[in-house]
């Protein structure tokens, strides 16, 4: 009798195991206060936000005037006028600093955001990011916006990231969803890498050589190199253009990253934009043997996927303007009949931008539906184990 019982138990266990899904071990790793404990099975959902509310345990707001290192014109701050959730959508919305301070403050006031409480501390001191004084030539940052990150809550290495988002409408708006390394294992930017899932421009009719580079185009790339002057991003850059009048500002799209131990693939709406194979390594891919012969390879003792073999965190932001060339000057570019109010070579670019607001501000439609169309709108962020 005992033999029959044991046999029945073994048979039941075998059938249960046969009916249950098998776990394929995943190379994905993750860390942070909101990261599920590993190891993971392939396909496990390890991070998700559907934005039913703004979860401060997941998203940390940055507080800086630094302009992203590109002399952009925004002040990233934590304010519900600039970042909020409504009906399951996360909005990052630009507003004018002068609406709070008055016009004269821009050219005569001082923005000191060092902060006194932990949540108010300046998060980016570089490029005079914690304090700026305005004068008639160099005004303080004229726009407020938001940039949020998961640096404390969720970092991951290898996996599949999907963000469903709608790009904003408005001249000189620069939305981005991207990733930076948790630790600078290989040195300062760009030696430790950067992954740009999606970037766009909010201009309605912005063209270079006839190609629409505004709302009808999104782009993805990787940044890597031994120093800021040697950056191999152009070897991984890829773009997708929509049909005329069907810009990425007209609806929600899926922006997708597949990150494996030997390649990275960018996709939009399940259509591959570009697959980037590590090959023999990113030192070779970047051509640094030729372009930077005096520099040492920071990844010589790492895997072929370096610097993209470490954990990265997620960032979402809406920048405005900047002088690094992301917004080409007009001419040679064209911007409908509105031109460009500032030059990338101008020592007073922020002032020139602000003084031209009568031309660009109507494109933001700030008085229509609380400026939702000029906002980066995010439906969800999800990460699965590879």
From TrEMBL:
InterPro entries: Beta-glucanase-like, ConA-like_dom_sf, Glycosyl_Hydrlase_16. Keywords: Signal. It comes from the Eukaryota. Belongs to the glycosyl hydrolase 16 family. This is Beta-1,3-glucan-binding protein. Residues 19-386 form the GH16 domain. GO terms for biological process: carbohydrate metabolic process. SUPFAM superfamilies: Concanavalin A-like lectins/glucanases (SSF49899). GO terms for molecular function: hydrolase activity, hydrolyzing O-glycosyl compounds. It comes from Culex pipiens (House mosquito). Residues 1-16 form the signal peptide.
């Amino acid at each position: 009798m005992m033999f029959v019982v044991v046999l029945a138990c073994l048979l039941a266990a075998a059938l249960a195991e046969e009916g249950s899904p098998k776990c394929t071990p995943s190379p994905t790793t993750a860390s942070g206060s909101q990261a599920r404990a590993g190891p993971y099975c392939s396909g496990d959902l390890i991070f998700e936000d559907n934005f039913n509310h703004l979860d401060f345990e997941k998203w940390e707001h940055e507080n800086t005037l630094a302009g992203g290192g590109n002399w952009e014109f925004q002040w990233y701050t934590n304010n519900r006028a600039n970042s909020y959730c409504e009906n399951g959508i996360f909005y990052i919305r630009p507003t004018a600093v002068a609406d709070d301070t008055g016009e004269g403050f821009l050219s005569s006031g001082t923005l000191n955001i060092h902060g006194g409480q932990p949540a108010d501390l300046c998060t980016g001191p570089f490029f005079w990011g914690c304090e700026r004084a305005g004068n008639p030539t160099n005004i303080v940052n004229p726009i407020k916006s938001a940039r949020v990150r998961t640096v404390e809550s969720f970092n991951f290495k290898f996996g599949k990231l999907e963000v469903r988002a709608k790009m904003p409408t408005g001249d000189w708006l620069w939305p981005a969803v991207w990733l930076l390394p948790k630790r600078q294992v290989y040195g300062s930017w760009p030696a430790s890498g950067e992954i740009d899932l999606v970037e766009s421009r909010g201009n309605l009719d912005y063209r270079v050589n006839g190609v629409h580079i505004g709302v009808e185009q999104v782009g993805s790339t990787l940044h890597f190199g031994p120093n800021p002057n040697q950056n191999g991003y152009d070897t991984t850059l890829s773009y997708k253009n929509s049909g005329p009048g069907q810009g990425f500002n007209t609806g929600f799209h899926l922006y997708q990253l597949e990150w494996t131990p030997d390649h990275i693939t960018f996709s939009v709406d399940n259509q591959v934009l570009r697959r980037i194979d590590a090959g023999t390594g990113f030192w070779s891919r970047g051509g640094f043997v030729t372009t930077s012969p005096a520099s040492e390879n920071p990844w010589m003792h790492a895997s072929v996927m370096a610097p993209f073999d470490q954990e990265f965190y997620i960032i979402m932001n809406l920048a405005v303007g900047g002088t690094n060339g992301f917004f080409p000057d007009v001419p040679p570019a064209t911007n409908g009949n509105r031109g460009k109010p500032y030059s990338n070579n101008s020592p007073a670019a922020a002032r020139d931008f602000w003084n031209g607001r009568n031309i660009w501000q109507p494109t933001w439609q700030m008085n229509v539906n609380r400026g939702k169309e000029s906002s980066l709108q995010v439906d969800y962020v999800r990460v699965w184990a590879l």
